[in-house]
Structure formats: structure tokens, C-alpha cells
Amino acid sequence: MTPNVNYKQLKENYLFFEISRRVAEFQKSHPEKEILRMGIGDVTLPLCRAVVDAIKKAATDMGNATTFHGYGPEQGYDFLREKIQAYYAESDVRLELSEIFISDGAKSDLGNILDLFDLNNTVLIPDPVYPVYVDTNIMNGRNIIFAEANEENGFLPMPDASIAADIIYLCSPNNPTGAVYSRDQLKTWVDYANRKHAVILFDAAYESFITDQTLPRSIFEIEGAKTCAVEFCSLSKTAGFTGTRCGYTVVPNALELEGMNFNKMWLRRQTTKFNGVSYIVQKGAEAVFSTEGRKQIQENIAYYRKNASIITQTLDKLGIWYTGGKNSPYIWLRCPNKMDAWTFFDKLLTETGIVGTPGAGFGKQGTDFFRLTAFSTNENTGKAMEKFLDLLTGP
Ligand code: PLP
Question: Which among 280, 248, 281 has a CA at the least distance from the CA of 95?
């Protein structure tokens, strides 16, 4: 027996542990101080009414012999895939039902998709980044190279023709930076991937936060993407499914390299290793796409958008450079007064009780940056940003 020694290469994910440690220490010495959590990546609003009603009804179905559901199709029920197909059609993206796979969330599929790739492939990952892309590839022992995101490129790195990559991760709207690729920028990536016979793994978990109609919500809005991309989507932030678990992955039939069809491979992989998402959850997910559900989740998204605008207005007043917040629930700011991320974290915590996320936890390029999120309550966001303003304008 030889264990997978690649696990030795994983860095301890000390970011959230270290944040909790520092917050606990501060609370112990200052029990009277209020803590305002502005770094959370989980939602605060509950599931909307339409979803809850659908889940209740589906639970009743499961207790009735005539409407009971046992194993479902591994790739998801047609009733949900048809809704997703129609949702894409609104953005002029035509998908076959066979191209849509229902998942228990984007995170699992982002890791599972690597089953389809050889271990010798080189992986290109932006820095800073959602850590799952890095860690899943380290576990497999793949060679990783980083595309530097920085203030100059607006945290939207573009392809470098001299670099050969086989697998490319893009996340737009981005976590942690909130930056969103334009159509032209994505077209450049798609052309690069097709030229290099590379595959883009496109994470669209935050597409529902896009308000600017000129920005693409899906990579498949870009011509040529169906021969080079897989897209991962999630209902976690769109509809508060972080604890309910449902997402979807689009693997185009036209994605074929070296004589192998990725749609067929993914279907084979899923039918072998996955038994589908529960009927009850898929019924809840279906309700997200109903007229009522759409209206209700838009109200929730508008609630978070309000938080984002409270944050960005404060940063605008202070003249602090940032990305995100406009078409994304994340706001990525340059730490003021040349502080590094952890110094700013400590200052914010000890002087205002605000807890954010130091950018250093997302990669080298995050050393001097800081992430705030729009997922808190309106009340706490308002309170936190008043304190933030006072701290940075005070004597
Ligand atoms: N992708 C990104 C960029 C995320 O930030 C997250 C969650 O925070 C996920 C995927 C995971 O989504 P899910 O809850 O669907 O697994």
C-alpha cells in the first residue's frame, strides 16, 4: 500500500482557522465589543417561499407509494434540466438536454471533473483564486502554473501566447476579486484554448449577480466555447442553496479532443460514481426557475446587492481602489495606507470589530488586498461600513 503522497504537498488551509483564532482571542479580551462579520461566503437569507413549498410537496410525494421516487437518472431529472435549458436560451445559448448534468453543487464537480484529464496535463490557475482549483490538482499531482491577477489587469489575467497550458480555470464573476470578464476578454481566452487544444473549466457560480447586460453570464455565450469549455454553476448563492446542495454542470457534446468526447466521458463517470441528486432537492431547484421563484430569488439578490452598494459607496468616499461589488457579491480592495492584509485585518478587528478576509489567503497576489462580502444583513453591513468610514477618516 502506498498512500497518495501528493496530500503532503497541500498547504494547511489555515486562513479561516487563523481568522477564527484571532477573532476568538479579541472577543476574550474585549467581550463587550460587537463583532461584525463582513467576510462570510455563506448566505444569510433563508430559502424563498416557492422553493420551500416545492420541497414540502416533494417530501409528501416520497411518502406516497404512487408518487414515490427511488434512484433517479444520474444526470438529473428532465423536469429540472428542461428549466435550465430554457434559462440558458434566454441568453441565446442553445443546449441539448444531454449537455446538462445536475450536481450536488459546483464544488464537487469542480473536483470530480479532473477524472477526465491525464495527470501529465499542465494547469493554469489565476492568482488569487478560489482554493479548490489548486488543492484538487495538488491532490492529483498535476503541474500548476499561475496567471498573475493584479491591479494593472483589473484582476482579470489574459492569456500569454508563450505559455502552454492544457487545463485553464476561469471564474467570472470571480471569487475572491468580484472582477468579471467582458465578452471580448472571454473570446480571447476561448480562441487561445481552441488554438492550444486546451480545456477551460469555467466557474459561473456567481452569474446571477451580473446586472450589466453587456457582460456574459455563461462562457457559452462566446462563439467557439463549445469546443473548449465546461461550465460549472450553482444554486448556492443564486437561491440560498448552500445547505440544500444543488448545482449543474454543462459539458458540450462538441467538446472532443484527441478523439475522445468529454460529454460521453462525463456521463460514463457520473453513471459509475454518482447516483444523482435527491428528488426532493431537484424539485426545490425546479422551483427556483418558476415565475414565483425567479421573482423571490431576485428579491434576495437585490438585498445582497444593496449591501454591495453600501460597501462600494464607502470605498468610493474614501478613494480606496477595489474591484467587484457591481456585478458580484465580493468586493476586493487594496488595503489602505500601504498596510498588508493581515495588518489591516488586525486593525479593523481591534478598532471596529469588523471581520473581513485577508487577500493573502487566496494567493501571493492577494498579499496587500482584502475581501469584503455582501452576504451579511443590511443592518450589519450599514453599521460596519459606518465604522469603516470613521476608522479611515478619523484623526
Ligand atoms: N465556486 C466558487 C467560485 C465558489 O466561491 C463556491 C463557493 O463558495 C463554489 C464554487 C461552491 O459552490 P457550491 O456551494 O455549489 O458547491
Answer: 248
Atom of ligand 1 nearest to the CA of 110: 10
Distance from residue 242's CA to the centre of ligand 1 (Å): 9
C-alpha cell at 177: 476579486
237 C-alpha to ligand 1 centroid (Å): 8
Interval between CA 106 and ligand 1 midpoint (Å): 6
pLDDT one-digit tens code per residue, 327-366: 999 999 999 999 999 999 999 999 999 999 999 999 999 9
Q: Which protein residues are within 6 Å of ligand 1, measured from CB?
A: 41, 105-107, 130, 171, 175, 203, 205, 234, 236, 242, 247
Task: In whole angstroms, give the CA distance from residue 249 to residue 230.
Answer: 7
Closest Cα to residue 370, out of 358, 380, 355?
358
Q: Which domains, and CATH codes, for the chain?
A: 10-47+293-393 (3.90.1150.10), 49-290 (3.40.640.10)
Within 13 A of 133's CA, how many CA atoms are on the CB side? 27
Q: How much distance in Å is there from the Cα of 247 to the middle of ligand 1?
A: 9
Return the C-alpha torsion angle 63, 66, 67, 72, nearest 10.
Answer: 100
pLDDT digits (tens, 9 = 90+) for 14-40: 788 899 999 999 999 999 999 999 998
| Nearest by Cα to 173 from 374, 319, 341 | 374
Grid cell for residue 365: 497576489
